[in-house]
Amino acid sequence: MARYDRAITVFSPDGQLLQVQYAQEAVRRGSPLVGVRGAEAIVLAVEKRAVQTLEDTRIEKKIVVLDEHIVMGFAGLRADARILIARAQIECQSYRLTVEDPVSVEYISRYMAEMKQHYTQSNGRRPFGISCLVAGFNFDGTPHLFQTDPSGTYYEWKAAATGRSEKTVREYLEKNYSPEAVNTDEKTIKLAIKALLEAVHAGKRNLDVAVIKGGQPVRMLKNNTIISFIAEIEKEKAEKEALEKKKDYMNKMNNWGIS
After folding, report:
1. For residues 32 and 160, what is the distance between their CA atoms, to the nearest angstrom?
2. Nearest Cα to Cα of residue 189 among 153, 225, 214
3. pTM of the complete model
4. How far does CA 37 lie from the centroid of its chain?
5. How buried is 219 (Cβ within 10 angstroms: 0-12 exposed, 13-18 middle, 19+ buried)?
């Protein structure tokens, strides 16, 4: 088995590229990231790494602007992300200068996916250990949310998750996403934060939340605003649990014939 994981261009006997699998494992160890596409806005939410006392927090960004209408969040290795972000930003500007139009969200997502795929079959290189959520509005005002992974594939989603506890968060989104759940900006933000809290350890709720709207600059929510959303979510959760306990109690009383 060892000889197959030394070279990224050699398949193992069961048809796997082991270096790509290792890159995907690096993503699964990264901070959880959630993207939700709403009726009028797209929300990206990510858990921030705990920073040292003297560290400049401006450097620690897991949500970055690629172009004035496109934002990217990532889970995985920051050093790898830095290279990919720089290349994507240059491509956005090059496209604008050449075509005199901004890139579409799908175009830049496909560009990054092709770059990742190239790194899975080139000697002297290794796959990018990051998964990206790319969100934005096209020139015609339509919202789009794409995901790219280390293998070089890309997909479009209504809501997506990557990073630590990806499966848990995605199952939550599949269960709770609906047009009614995202028909306002506030509901979209709340759903993204709720989903992210499924993967965030209690007591370590240090989040970044970006709101992308067509024709407007990207808005990063202030920490106080995020705390308010979390408090409201926890209050609703406590009320729901209390109501369920009351229903269970009443059902038991009815079963025992007590009115």
Report:
1. 11
2. 225
3. 0.87
4. 11
5. middle
| Residue 198 DSSP one-character state | T
Closest CA to 37 of 159, 200, 162: 159
The residues near 243 (Cβ < 8 Å, ≥ 6 apart) are none
Strands 41-47 and 33-37: antiparallel
Residue with tokens 């759940």: 181
Distances in whole angstroms, Cα of residue 126 to Cα of each of 12, 18, 152, 233, 242: 16, 11, 12, 41, 51
Note down pLDDT in tens along the chain; length 259 residues.
Answer: 456 556 666 777 777 788 888 899 999 999 999 999 999 999 999 998 776 666 676 666 899 999 999 999 999 999 999 999 999 999 999 999 999 999 999 999 999 999 999 988 877 788 999 999 999 999 888 999 999 999 999 999 999 999 999 999 999 999 999 999 999 999 999 999 999 999 887 555 789 999 999 989 999 999 999 999 999 988 888 888 788 777 777 777 777 765 5
Strand order in the sheet with 63-67: 63-67, 70-76, 130-137, 143-148, 154-156
| Rg of the chain taking only CA atoms, in angstroms | 21
Residue 135: exposed, middle, or buried by beta-carbon count in 10 A (0-12, 13-18, 19+)?
buried
- What letter represents residue 162's amino acid? T
Max distance between CA atoms of the chain, in angstroms, equals 78
Nearest CA-CA partner of 16 in 131, 127, 8: 8
